[in-house]
Amino acid sequence: MTAPTPIRRALVSVSDKTHLEVLAQILIDAQVEVLSTGGTFKSLEALGVAVVKVSEYTGAPEILGGRVKTLHPKIHGGILALPSAAHEAELRLHGIAPIDLVVVNLYPFREVVARPGCSFEDAVENIDIGGPAMVRAAAKNWQRVAVVVDPSDYARVGEALREHGGALPEALRRSLMRKAYAHTAAYDAAIAGYLARFDDAGLSLGTDVLPDRIFVAGAAQGELRYGENPHQAARFYATALAAGEPAGLHRAVQHQGKALSYNNLLDADAALGLCRDLSRLGPAAAVIKHVSPCGAAVARADESLAEVYVRAREADAESAFGGIVALSGPVDRAVAERLAETFLEVVIAPSFTAEALQLLASKKNLRLLSLEDMLVGTGPEAQPALRLRSIAGGLLAQREDAVSVAAAQGKVATRRAPTASELRDLEMAQIVGKAVRSNAIVLCKDGATVGIGGGQTSRVEAARQATARAGARAQGAVLASDAFFPFRDGVDAAAAAGVTAIVQPGGSVRDEEVVAAADEHGVAMVFTGQRHFRH
C-alpha cells in the first residue's frame, strides 16, 4: 500500500451548499489550492477562500449557458492521472496539474421533478452532466483522489487531514468512493425513473400504465434493532418520492422513546395511510395492531380530537393495548392525557405541543413521531403512489389502492336506499375495509368502527368475527365488505347482529340471492363495482 497523496489541489462545485462554511475553513487551514465554478466560486470567495475559476485555469470559458464548464482535459486529466512516471510526464507535457480532492454534488433533479407542475423541459435542464463525470472519474481513481458528495462528510475529512498531515487514509478514501458511486447510481435511477413515466411521444403514461422498468434507490436511515424477529437483520431505506406524493416516514421527527423497529415502521405506515384516508371525512384517529386496524373514528359535530381518539381506541380497547396510533391533528394536553391511559408503542401526528410532550415524557418506551405535512397531497386528486413488494426472483408493482367509488356513488341494489347517516358510515367502513387483510368485513356506527373481521379464508367467518367483536354495538351499524358475498350467509349473519346497511362490490353469480336476503331483512345494500382486496 502506497502512502496517501497529500491534498494540494481541490475542485469544488456543489449545488447543495449545506455546511460550505465548514469546508471553506478546512481548505483554508490545509492551504489547499481551490478550483471552482459559478455560484460555488462566489460562495467560497465570500467565505475567504483563495479560489480560482475553472475557466481561468483551463483557458476555456463556460459555454452554452453553463452546460459546458468542467468537461476539459485539464480537469479530467488532473483527476484521472495515476501516480506513475508515465502519467506524470504526460501531465507536465500538457500543462495539467493533479487534482487530489473533488467535492461535488449534483443538480437537484429529484427535488425539481417532485415539484407540482414541473415541466419535462425543466426536468431535462436539471440533469447534471459535468458533475457525475467528475464524481465517477474521482471515484475511479480513489487510490489517489478523494471524492466527497455528502456535506455531512466535510467534518470527518477535515479531521482526517489534521490527523494525517494533510493526506487522507486509504480506508476513508475507499469509504468516500463507495458513497460516490452510490450517489451517481441513485441520481441516474431518479432520472431513468422519471423518464419511464412518459411514452415515446413524450406523453405522460398516467397512473393506469406502469413503466417497463422500475428503478429503486434508497439511502439507509440507520440500523434497526432487528427485523420481524430478533434473528433477522433489517434496515430502513429512504427512497425518493414522486411528484405530489405525501411525505414518508423518513421525514418524521422522533421526539422520544427507543429506536423504531421494523415492525414499528410497518405499523406506523399502516396507521399513517389509514389516518390520511379517513381525514377526508374530518378529524380522524386510527389504531393499528400487527398492520391491521383495530379501531378508527372520524369526528362528529363539534367533537374534539381527544374524543375522536377515545372512540377509535374503545372500538377494540383490548387490541389497542400495545398498538400504534395516528392522529390527523396536533396533539395537545387533552389528547396526551387520553393517550397516556393506554400502553402504546408509537403515536404519529402532525405536531405535539410542548405541554403534550412534557406530559408524555414519563412514557419512556412510547415513540412520538411528528410529520408536519402528513396530510399534504392526500386529497382525492392525489396520484396514487407506486407500491412495490418483493417475491422470489423479482418485484411486484401496483398503484396504491384508493376508494374511488364511495357508497354514495354506488348503485342501490335493494328496495331500501341507505339514509344519509348510513352513507357516511358506509364510506368510512369502505376506507377502513381496504386497510384490513382479506377477507375483510368492517362494521361502523356513528363515525367509528365497532367490529372488524379480517384475514379469514371464509367471508362468512369474517362477518361472524366482526359482529362478534361488535356485540351489542352491531345494532344499527353498517357494514363494508372488501369483495362480493358469494352466498347469502354473510348477509344473514350481519342482519341477525343488527346491521342495517351494506356496501360491497357486487359481481357474484349469486348477487340476486344476496340482494333478496338483504330485502328480507330490510337491509339497504349498495354495489360499487370496486373490490378492495389486501393480501
Describe this structure in words.
- The chain is elongated, with a radius of gyration of 29 Å.
- The strands form 5 sheets. It has a 6-stranded mixed beta sheet with strand order 8-13-12-11-9-10.
- Helix 8 runs antiparallel to helix 10 (170-195) and helix 12 (305-314) packs parallel to helix 14 (333-339).
- With 535 residues, it is an alpha/beta fold.
- It starts with 8 loop residues before the first strand and ends in an 8-residue tail after the last strand.
- 36% of the residues lie in helices and 19% in strands.
- It has 19 helices and 21 strands.
- Its EC number is 2.1.2.3, 3.5.4.10.
- This is Bifunctional purine biosynthesis protein PurH.
- Keywords: Hydrolase, Multifunctional enzyme, Purine biosynthesis, Transferase.
- It catalyses: IMP + H2O = 5-formamido-1-(5-phospho-D-ribosyl)imidazole-4-carboxamide; (6R)-10-formyltetrahydrofolate + 5-amino-1-(5-phospho-beta-D-ribosyl)imidazole-4-carboxamide = 5-formamido-1-(5-phospho-D-ribosyl)imidazole-4-carboxamide + (6S)-5,6,7,8-tetrahydrofolate.
